[in-house]
Design goal:
The chain has about 550 residues and is α+β, with helices and mostly antiparallel strands. The chain has helices at about 20-30, 30-45, 85-95, 100-105, 110-125, 135-140, 150-160, 165-175, 190-205, 220-235, 245-260, 260-265, 270-280, 280-285, 290-295, 300-310, 360-365, 375-410, 415-420, 430-435, 440-445, 485-495, 505-515, 520-530, 535-540, and strands at about 50, 335-340, 345-350, 355-360, 450-455, 455-460, 465-470, 480-485. Among the domains are: about 20-125 and about 355-380, no CATH class; about 150-320, no CATH class; about 465-540, Arc Repressor Mutant, subunit A. A hairpin with a 2-residue loop joins strand 5 (about 450-455) and strand 6 (about 455-460). It is extended, with a radius of gyration of 34 Å.
């Protein structure tokens, strides 16, 4: 065997994405709210980018820089970290090189001090005023604080309850095992074993290394935990917290509500019926087998309905009442309106929320000033490059998104005229070919975007789907293409119009759709019904 070293020449083609291209695709994919946050971050970290007030004499629109990008023969370098704290870097540089800053102030020709005075004035623009006020910090101070967790709120309640001291630590232990819905799904014997194991670990650890929490001299017994659990169910709010099953959760809430039955307008007998149903016939109720419940309990159908009306007031997730996940508001990226003069729908971007951006001209001039230290010029050029990229990316996003939305509005005219049932199949490849762009660009442009239309706020991606060609209807209407979303809308319309005392089965729904010219199989009807969150026929039946 012989080892040798040799050189070879090989030709090949490789496609690589530059950092700017990757970040441009990210900007295109961002919905409006995320883009606002991204621009705000860049304004805070990049001193060469500034916001123009609407009252400015010559406001520069985003995407149209007001300076010549080529400062000299060398191209700008882009900081691939995209978002590093450039202010901190500048502060560290001035602290480490005081002589460089001092020399720059006095360049020997009388220009250095004046230049850096303007540099400092522009650099500190937007910083806190002399009186210490800052609009950004004021806005942050006015932002509501994040709410306490469910466990923290329940521990605060538990600390104020009048319970035996022997149950204080076991109650805290039980609270630590509750899930987000407020249920205790861990068996008490397992909790006792884990408490004993935690005590053994803490006993061998130094005092300063122990975690905060209830400490037990010995393994807590299941009986003690049972007593603590009953106390927690009795004292903790809202009622139903610390339940182990949905049935126990509802029973706890019924017990709490029964004291105020008269004020709530419910007769006491209804509470007895509701408690009977929950304890012994909950499975039949969930399966909508009301006649069987009436046969087993001897209750009339009217009494069962009254009890069910009471049960509907209960919550199966009581813990969510204390800690609710706030839904993020949907902000439409574009608005579609009808133009009666031209008899067409016009789309325009909802970009008035975005600030007007431009390059700070003083920094653009300083980047070419040879009187400034080289490292200072490189710092300025790096930030100017990042600012230029952001303006170009936002402008490209605006242009691409508007073209895609306009093409969609034109292709889906029937949706705006007649509603969801008139949606047509529209593959993304068709829009990409029409606009002369890649289908991946269309996919990124519609991702997480919404349109404000005369028919409400609609996800932009909803307009893109496959479909089927309908058959001639019973009334002799011609064939047409329907998107899957249109078929779902037709299915919902059929279900809403059915007799609730005798709802249609999936096979009957398929047959009803065939009468409308939509030929789909029963299993497809079942799939679409599940996607729409509609229950099967036996659960939709009313008595």
């Amino acid at each position: 065997m012989r080892f040798e070293t040799a050189q070879h020449i090989k030709l090949g083609q490789h496609m690589k994405l530059a950092p700017r291209m990757i970040q441009s695709m990210e900007i295109l994919q961002m919905p409006l709210v995320e883009l606002e946050e991204r621009i705000e971050q860049e304004l805070e970290s990049n001193p060469t980018l500034e916001q123009v007030d609407g009252s400015a004499d010559e406001p520069a629109e985003a995407g149209e820089p007001s300076f010549e990008p080529d400062f000299d023969s060398r191209p700008l370098t882009v900081d691939e970290r995209a978002g590093g704290d450039e202010f901190s870097r500048l502060d560290r540089y001035e602290a480490d090189h005081p002589e460089a800053v001092e020399n720059a102030y006095d360049g020997g020709d009388g220009v250095g001090r004046e230049t850096f005075d303007r540099f400092e004035s522009s650099y500190t623009e937007g910083r806190p005023a002399a009186d210490g006020t800052d609009s950004k910090f004021d806005a942050m101070a006015a932002t509501p604080a994040r709410g306490a967790s469910l466990a923290d709120q329940l521990r605060g309640q538990w600390a104020l309850t009048d319970v035996d001291d022997a149950l204080r630590a076991p109650g805290e232990l039980i609270i630590s095992f509750l899930d987000d819905d407020g249920y205790l799904r861990t068996p008490l014997d397992v909790i006792a074993d884990r408490a004993a194991l935690s005590h053994a670990d803490d006993a061998g650890a130094p005092a300063e290394g122990r975690e905060s929490g209830p400490v037990f001299a010995d393994r807590p017994t299941v009986e003690t935990l049972e007593r603590a659990l009953r106390a927690a169910q009795l004292f903790l709010e809202p009622p139903g917290v610390a339940a182990r099953t949905p049935a126990e959760c509802m029973l706890l809430q019924l017990d709490a509500m029964e004291d105020d039955a008269e004020d709530l307008g419910w007769p006491a007998i209804t509470f007895e019926h509701a408690r009977l149903i929950v304890e012994h016939h909950l499975d039949d109720i969930t399966q909508n087998r009301l006649p069987r419940v009436a046969e087993k309990t001897g209750l009339t159908m009217e009494q069962i309905k009254e009890a069910l009306g009471l049960l509907k007031r209960l919550s199966l997730s009581p813990g969510r009442r204390l800690v609710e996940e706030r839904a993020r508001p949907v902000v439409p990226d574009a608005i579609v309106e009808y133009d009666p003069e031209q008899d067409r729908y016009v789309a325009y971007l909802n970009d008035t929320r975005l600030p007007n951006l431009r390059i700070n001209q003083e920094y653009a001039r300083l980047a070419k000033d040879r009187a400034i230290q080289k490292r200072d010029r490189e710092f300025i050029k790096t930030n100017l490059g990042n600012a230029q990229w952001l303006l170009d990316a936002v402008g490209q996003r605006r242009q691409t998104l508007l073209r895609v939305v306009s093409a969609v509005v034109e292709a889906q005219r029937d949706f705006f005229d007649y509603g969801p049932q008139a949606l047509k199949p529209l593959p993304m490849t068709a829009i990409a070919e029409q606009l002369g762009i890649h289908v991946a660009t269309v996919s990124r442009a519609v991702a997480e975007k919404h349109l404000a239309t005369p028919r409400g706020i609609v996800p932009l991606r909803k307009f893109f789907s496959g479909g089927v060609q309908t058959k001639p209807t019973d009334t002799g209407e011609a064939k047409e293409d329907l998107a899957w979303e249109a078929i779902k809308a037709a299915l919902r319309d059929v279900i809403e119009g059915e007799d609730k005392k005798s709802p249609l089965s999936d096979e009957a729904l398929a047959e009803s759709l065939r009468g409308r010219g939509i030929d789909i199989a029963r299993r497809t009807v079942a799939k679409y019904r599940d996607q729409l969150g509609i229950q099967p026929a036996r659960l939709r039946r009313t008595y």
